[in-house]
């Protein structure tokens, strides 16, 4: 049964008068079920067999002493009790539903999901704060983590790939909060073109830039599709190059044969053993990579990454959280200044001007679509203020409230300096762009 029909079924008047009664029935029969089963025998079964077995035992219990129920109500009750007994209770069907990309639980009474880019509240809730805490504890214990008053925040990746964040009272004022992000699907650039994120001309250009080993920063807000685009761009790196990826939670799915994936590690329960992104970026440079890919720069590791980019690891890629191409550069400068190596602010500009070649900006529109809104190349040098030249942009038509975002991609001549690098690498300039012949005449924007 798909999620929609399941939720729909739960909205129907179920066994008992209201949702409270429903939850009470589930709790009662969950208790009875757990009394009747042999846990040792259960643990020897596969998950599917376990579900089967629980359903059968519960069926017997209901026939023996259950309330009078319609077939639909009965199978719904069985489903919910078994889901609860097996694991994550009302979250189970949500986790099963592939169209859901994010589950957000704000205390026991509010469950939101993101589906196709849109967030909606579901008519579901946990029976109590205790029940939600039990579910949370079950989730975090699968990764040997603990959540309690002395350790009220947990960020972890499940063995199945989902990323889980938990924060509980007193830090969270709305009750225990649980956020589950499904392991992002790896989309190809062709799929992203189908979604309208970018067009075919942009794909050709980006492919050339990646193969010609320009350093590219993918910038965007939360959930704007940075990791997804980074993954698709990484797919264009020719096989045979030695690639080292560094991430907080390994999300990239590279298909090349020579890839080393590094993942940072939070401190353990005693607060020991932490390995930061920074440690990994530094370590990656000692691994003789052709390219370094940093999932997201958030702090001092930015300085190490910039150094890598300007010292022979051309063709490196990273994402940064920023709302425009200019902001991305200023943000890199701020992040790099967070390193414990104190580099004067102007010197960081020099570092960025020589390291970064291209910024690709992404936006998540109100209608849920993710769009590439700009490709900008750096036109500044040395310690000059950042200046960028737009080579592609998306111009949106005025949005009608609640409507979808329409618009079109525009392509501009590529600065000579970048075109030369493409030529040198044997890449074509895609026809939609052409080449700007004299870079001193280039129209640029300054970042301030
Ligand atoms: N171009 C796209 N079109 C449609 N959906 C997309 C696109 N890019 C990403 N998504 C979906 O949006 C969600 C967020 O994507 P992704 O993780 O790539 O974003 P992000 O910017 O890296 O997020 P974060 O800020 O959390 O790191 C995922 O469910 C992903 O499948
Ligand atoms: Mg990301």
What does this structure look like?
This protein is α/β, with parallel strands linked by helices and 448 residues long. The chain folds into three domains: 1-84, no CATH class; 87-183, Beta-Lactamase, CATH 3.30.450.370; 189-446, Rossmann fold, CATH 3.40.50. Helix content is 37%, strand content 20%. The chain is built from 15 helices and 16 strands. The protein has helices at residues 3-11, 19-36, 39-43, 47-65, 71-86, 91-96, 129-141, 189-194, 200-211, 226-234, 277-285, 301-310, 325-336, 345-355, 416-424, and strands at residues 100-106, 111-115, 118-122, 153-157, 163-167, 177-181, 216-220, 243-247, 259-263, 291-294, 317-321, 358-364, 370-378, 387-396, 407-411, 445-446. Strands 7, 8, 9, 10, 11, 12, 13, 14, 15 and 16 form a ten-stranded mixed beta sheet that branches. A six-stranded antiparallel beta sheet has the order 3-2-1-6-5-4. Helix 2 (19-36) crosses helix 5 and helix 12 (301-310) crosses helix 14 (345-355). The longest helix has 19 residues, at 47-65. The chain is elongated. The N and C termini lie far apart (54 Å). Mean pLDDT is 88; it is low at 1-19. The structure holds adenosine-5'-triphosphate and magnesium ion (MG).
Task: Detail the topology: elements first, then pairings.
Blueprint: H1 3-11, H2 19-36, H3 39-43, H4 47-65, H5 71-86, H6 91-96, E1 100-106, E2 111-115, E3 118-122, H7 129-141, E4 153-157, E5 163-167, E6 177-181, H8 189-194, H9 200-211, E7 216-220, H10 226-234, E8 243-247, E9 259-263, H11 277-285, E10 291-294, H12 301-310, E11 317-321, H13 325-336, H14 345-355, E12 358-364, E13 370-378, E14 387-396, E15 407-411, H15 416-424, E16 445-446
Parallel strand pairs: 7-11, 7-12, 8-9, 8-10, 10-11
Antiparallel strand pairs: 1-2, 1-6, 2-3, 4-5, 5-6, 12-13, 13-14, 14-15, 14-16
Helix pairs in contact: 2-4, 2-5, 4-5, 11-12, 12-13, 12-14, 13-14
């Amino acid at each position: 049964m798909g999620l929609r029909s399941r939720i729909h079924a739960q909205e129907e008047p179920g066994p008992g008068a209201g949702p409270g009664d429903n939850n009470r029935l589930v709790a009662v029969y969950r208790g009875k079920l757990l009394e009747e089963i042999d846990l040792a025998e259960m643990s020897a079964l596969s998950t599917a067999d376990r579900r089967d077995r629980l359903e059968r035992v519960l069926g017997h219990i209901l026939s023996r002493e259950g309330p009078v129920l319609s077939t639909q109500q009965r199978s719904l009750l069985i489903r919910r009790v078994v889901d609860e007994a097996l694991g994550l209770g009302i979250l189970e069907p949500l986790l099963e539903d592939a169209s859901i990309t994010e589950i957000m639980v704000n205390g026991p009474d509010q469950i939101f999901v993101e589906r196709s880019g849109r967030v909606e509240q579901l008519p579901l809730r946990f029976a109590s704060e205790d029940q939600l805490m039990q579910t949370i504890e079950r989730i975090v214990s699968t990764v040997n983590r603990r959540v309690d008053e002395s350790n009220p925040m947990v960020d972890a990746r499940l063995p199945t790939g989902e990323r889980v964040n938990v924060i509980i009272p007193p830090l969270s004022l709305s009750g225990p909060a649980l956020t589950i992000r499904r392991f992002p699907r790896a989309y190809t650039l062709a799929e992203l073109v189908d979604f309208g994120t970018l067009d075919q001309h942009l794909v050709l250009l980006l492919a050339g830039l990646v193969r010609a080993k320009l350093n590219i920063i993918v910038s965007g807000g939360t959930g704007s599709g940075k990791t997804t685009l980074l993954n698709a761009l990484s797919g264009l790196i020719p096989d045979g190059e030695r690639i080292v990826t560094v991430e907080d939670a390994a999300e990239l799915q590279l298909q090349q044969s020579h890839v080393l994936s590094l993942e940072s590690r939070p401190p353990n329960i005693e607060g020991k053993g932490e390995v930061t992104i920074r440690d990994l970026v530094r370590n990656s440079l000692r691994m003789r990579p052709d390219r370094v890919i940093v999932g997201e720069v958030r702090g001092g590791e930015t300085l190490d990454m910039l150094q890598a980019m300007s010292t022979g690891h051309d063709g490196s890629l990273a994402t940064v959280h920023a709302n425009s191409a200019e902001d991305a550069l200023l943000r890199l400068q701020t992040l790099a200044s967070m390193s414990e190596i104190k580099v004067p602010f102007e010197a960081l500009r020099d570092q960025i001007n020589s390291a970064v070649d291209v910024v690709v900006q992404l936006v998540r529109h109100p209608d849920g679509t993710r769009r590439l809104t700009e490709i900008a190349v750096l036109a500044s040098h040395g310690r000059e203020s950042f200046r960028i030249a737009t080579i592609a942009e998306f111009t949106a038509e005025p949005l009608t409230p609640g409507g979808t975002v329409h618009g079109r991609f525009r392509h501009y001549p590529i600065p000579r300096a970048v075109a030369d690098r493409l030529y040198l690498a044997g890449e074509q300039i895609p026809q939609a762009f052409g080449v700007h012949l004299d870079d001193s005449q280039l129209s640029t924007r300054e970042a301030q």
